[in-house]
Design brief:
heterodimer; A: 313 residues; mainly alpha; MetI-like fold; globular; B: alpha+beta; D-Maltodextrin-Binding Protein, domain 2; Dipeptide-binding Protein, domain 3; nine-stranded mixed beta sheet; four-stranded antiparallel beta sheet; 18 helices; 28% helix
């Protein structure tokens, strides 16, 4: 497994390099530049030119690209073009918020989605099944940021049960968890819709397997057939799909963080885009790319953990 | 059942191991799971929100005038012990921006930067809080009168307040402000490598007379209207601490400002918030607030909901009167609409056929219905009429409606006249104009209304919507025969110079700026007014320039758009709110929140 892991990590390097190059080009091809964005349209061309020079944007593109790669190799994510602050500090500050939100949303998704999926599978083609499928279809159709706005309106503005702003300091755990509820729900409920449909489908398939029929034939109570035999097998593909959920949630968290004015990688990235902060944007993308590569790797490794039949060669 | 097919396949994948994880991902993508991974890209496609437009509830048309108040050193830090910070409220302010750009006041241009800088720093004089039509002393004890020297120079001598203390910083203790700081700061403002506003200070020298006296000498005399803004709390006029800047460096003060204002910098979290705390040693008096927390909230809906939930006390709003009405329907909330207003105006390119014919340009102006342009912003109070590019509501030199009518340049929709002018120009059959517009409402809506108006006189406008920075680049490359521009400039000289002086002609001018009309007929009026020290005569010259612009149909004002904010009624700004150059309501030592 170690050799496999190392090989996968090495294979990730060209992927990352390609991603970095694309990111580097895209952020610069986009119209506008950081100096104009910083000084506004009031500033004279001379002032804008002077700022571009100070930002190092007057250098040839290839020079900027090489110094970007050289800095990365040294583990230096650079400084924000706009504020001059080290990017790594800012990412370090917000990363826990994004990780926490993602994990919380996974928990919400699984805790709600799996039971509903099982029930709708067992009660296939009943009213419960139809209701569950309609709700999950609705969940698939609602963007997380829109659900977030609805939740804020209902629970923060009308009922005043939770704050509209989705974050508090880690030093205040009570307030922190309280503030996490709505963002986690807005992401997690949509994830629950996916999990529901996935669970229902998997459980339905397992219930028709020979070993389930055998268990029933030998007279086991339905409860034991279900929990002792069917569901244990059904959970294997679900567990392995958590990684995929995590990746989709990291993407989904971008707008959720924006709606809840919550610190996070996504909010950092949107801000960097608006300010044309090239170095910040590049570095966030690097972090996203690394996180996704790592999650993919962990997901592959998880197969072996949940299913001993899998071998890594 | 078809919808379950990919799920069934995914299930088999998990159990039989015949498919790879990649295949599972592919299957999942087919049911949309992977779609949310593209959310960052979708986010990038979201329109960048317009910066809250400056605007005003039509303050009286007056140029800032030296205020009557003349604070003295005796007014410096009140001896009374301030209420402990724990017993005072923190004001939560949700600003419609992603982050600060810089808190170095000599570069600050974005609304959120101007807001914070305004709370942290002072200047020699200041615009009266909530009323940018009046000046009053700030760090100076009074607003001086200028003196003329024998060699034709002009000297302004400022006496400083005593006992004004700088905020303590990471590398400086609190210390008293002196003339050294003022001279250092103004020299920084005049240095193009250390200030975005250096051009405003060319031909000026700064000199310390004694610890509490500063002398500013101008090579060419200026009227108070043009000079005083340079030493006021706007752009390069803010005074920075010599010791702090020298110790920290220009780069560090971008995120850690050290000033003398009522609030001092406490912390900054990128893309999240800036925290300011009360400066209890503030020379006017200790603030009634414990501090101000500025939260960066780009999403207008989130700001509105946070205001309604009570988590935000003040938020930047949406420039539409419908939003104002909506907020005012909430029993605990109040929408504030105030100046300064950004003027939306047409620039008609005289170098481009067929607009090089004045009859064609006039025909276009006679097709415009000002009310239609107002209506797309919900009309007053957010959007209001204006009758010259220089807005008379906010500064000297603009034309009131009556003045424009008297001069015969108010125009007004008259389609018959418009068609007649086109026919006289030999263009009765109409023609086509191609233009680009920004996706921002303030631009796009106006272009779309213009498109409809011109269609009625046979002119087809082909409109291409591009993102805001691209529009700014393209119009500076002279692609548009008609440019609609939305801008506030601090005085008539800047408006006229940047948009109508031949030096500023885009692409071909010696100092290309924003003269999109390629106009060169009022250079002499602009230059005469600039050096005219008699305010009345100066104002008259600016009005003449505005009349000429309209007679020649090169610039046409549509309306101005006010600043719009929402606040809890528990907030009392501590001043009347008419117009603010800092583009927010203004939080001072007098501001309170009842919590």
């Amino acid at each position: 497994m170690l050799r496999y892991t190392v090989r996968r990590l090495l294979l990730a390097i060209p992927t990352l390099l390609a991603v970095l190059t694309i990111i580097f080009v895209i952020v610069r091809v986009a119209p506008g530049d950081p100096a104009t964005a910083a000084l506004g349209d009031y500033a004279s061309e001379e002032a804008v030119r002077a700022l571009r020079q100070r930002m190092g944007l007057d250098r040839p593109l290839w020079q900027q690209y090489l110094s970007f790669l050289a800095d990365l190799l040294r583990g230096d994510l650079g400084k924000s073009l706009i504020t001059g602050q080290p990017v790594v500090d800012q990412i370090r500050h917000v990363l826990p918020y994004t990780v926490e939100l993602t994990l919380a949303a996974i928990v919400v998704g699984l805790v709600i989605g799996i039971p509903i999926g099982i029930v709708t599978a067992i009660r296939r083609n009943t009213l419960v099944d139809y209701a569950g499928r309609v709700v999950s279809l609705a969940g698939l159709s609602v963007p997380a940021f829109y659900l977030g706005i609805l939740l804020i309106y209902l629970f923060a503005v009308r009922l005043r049960l939770f704050p509209a702003l989705g974050a508090a300091e880690f030093s205040k755990p009570g307030a922190h968890l309280h503030a996490l509820v709505l963002p986690a729900l807005s992401l997690g409920l949509i994830e629950a819709a996916y999990v529901t449909r996935m669970t229902r489908s998997v459980v339905l398939g397992v219930l028709h397997e020979d070993y389930v029929r055998t268990a029933r034939a030998k007279g086991l109570p339905e409860r034991i057939v279900l929990f002792g035999h069917a569901l244990r097998s059904a959970m294997i593909p679900l567990v392995s799909l958590i990684g995929l959920f995590a990746i989709s949630l990291i993407g989904g968290s971008v707008l959720t963080e924006e709606v809840f004015a919550r610190p996070g990688l996504g909010k950092l990235m949107i801000g960097a885009m608006k300010q044309k902060d090239y170095t910040m944007l590049q570095s966030i993308m690097v972090v996203y790319a690394i996180v996704i590569v790592v999650i993919n790797l962990l997901t592959d490794l998880l197969y072996g953990v949940v299913d001993p039949r899998v071998r890594y060669e | 059942m078809d919808a379950n097919r990919p799920l069934d396949e995914a299930k088999r994948t998990g159990i039989t191991r015949r498919m790879t994880r990649r295949a599972v991902l592919r299957r999942m993508a087919s049911i949309g799971l992977a779609a949310s991974a593209f959310a960052p890209l979708l986010a990038a496609c979201r329109q960048q929100e317009a910066t809250p437009a400056p605007g005003g509830v039509t303050p009286q048309p007056a140029t800032p005038t030296p205020g009557a108040a003349t604070p003295t050193a005796a007014q410096t830090p009140a001896g009374a012990t301030p209420t402990p910070a724990a017993e005072r409220a923190v004001l939560n302010y949700g600003v419609g921006a992603a982050d600060i750009t810089t808190l170095d006041p000599h570069f600050a241009a974005a609304t959120q930067d101007r807001n914070i800088v305004d709370m942290v720093f002072n200047a020699l004089i200041r615009y009266k809080p909530g009323d940018s039509t009046q000046f009053e002393p700030d760090l100076a004890v009074e607003i001086p009168d200028p003196e003329e020297t024998a060699d034709g120079k002009q000297v302004w001598t400022f006496k400083l307040r005593q006992g004004v203390m700088w905020h303590a910083g990471p590398q400086n203790d609190a210390y008293e402000l002196t003339a050294d700081d003022v001279v250092y700061s103004l020299q920084k403002s005049a240095n193009k490598d250390r200030s975005a506003y250096a051009a405003d200070y060319s031909g000026m020298t700064f000199e310390k007379v004694d610890n509490y006296t500063v002398k500013i000498t101008l090579e060419r005399p200026l009227s108070p209207t043009l000079f005083l803004p340079k030493v006021a709390n706007y752009n390069g006029g803010f005074i920075v601490s010599r010791r702090a800047v020298e110790a920290m460096g220009d780069e560090a003060i971008k995120t850690h400002p050290i000033g003398t204002g009522p609030f001092k910098f406490k912390s900054y979290a990128s893309k999240d918030r800036v925290e300011l705390e009360a400066n209890d040693g503030y020379f006017r008096s200790a603030p009634k607030l414990a501090g101000v927390q500025v939260r960066f909230m780009s999403d207008a809906t989130s700001r509105e909901l946070a205001l309604k939930s009570g988590e935000m006390d003040v938020v930047s709003g949406i420039s539409d009167s419908a939003w104002v009405q909506k907020i005012n329907q909430e029993p605990k909330l109040q929408a504030d609409v105030f100046g300064v207003g950004e003027v939306a105006f047409l620039n008609l390119n005289t170098a481009r056929e067929p607009l090089n014919d004045v009859r064609v340009r006039q025909a276009i102006l006679y097709a415009i219905d000002r009310d239609a342009h107002l209506a797309v912003f919900g009309g007053p109070p957010v959007a209001q009429n204006v009758f010259s590019v220089v807005p008379a509501a906010f500064m000297r030199g603009g034309l009131t409606e009556e003045e424009a009518r008297q001069a015969g340049v108010a125009y007004g929709r008259d389609l018959d006249r418009s068609r007649q002018l086109l026919a006289e120009a030999g263009l009765g059959g109409g023609f086509t104009l191609k233009m680009v517009t920004s996706e921002m409402d303030a631009y796009r809506k106006n272009y779309e209304v213009l498109q409809e108006e011109l269609r009625e006189i046979g002119i087809t406008v082909e409109l291409d919507v591009v993102d805001h920075p691209t529009m700014h680049r393209l119009i500076r490359e002279d692609v548009n025969p008609i440019v609609i521009y939305v801008a506030f400039r601090p005085n008539a000289d800047v408006y006229l110079t940047q948009f109508f002086h031949s030096d500023s002609i885009v692409v071909t001018g010696p100092k290309p700026n924003t003269n999109f009309s390629h106009y060169d007929q009022i250079d002499d009026l602009i230059e005469q007014a600039r050096v005219e020290t008699d305010p009345k005569r100066q104002e008259e010259l600016w009005k003449q320039a505005n009349i000429k612009i309209l007679q020649d149909a090169v610039g046409f004002p549509l309306h101005f758009i006010n600043q719009v904010y929402g606040r809890s009624k528990a907030v009392d700004y501590g001043h009347e709110l008419k117009a603010s150059l800092a583009l927010y309501p203004g939080f001072t030592e007098q501001t309170t929140v009842q919590k």
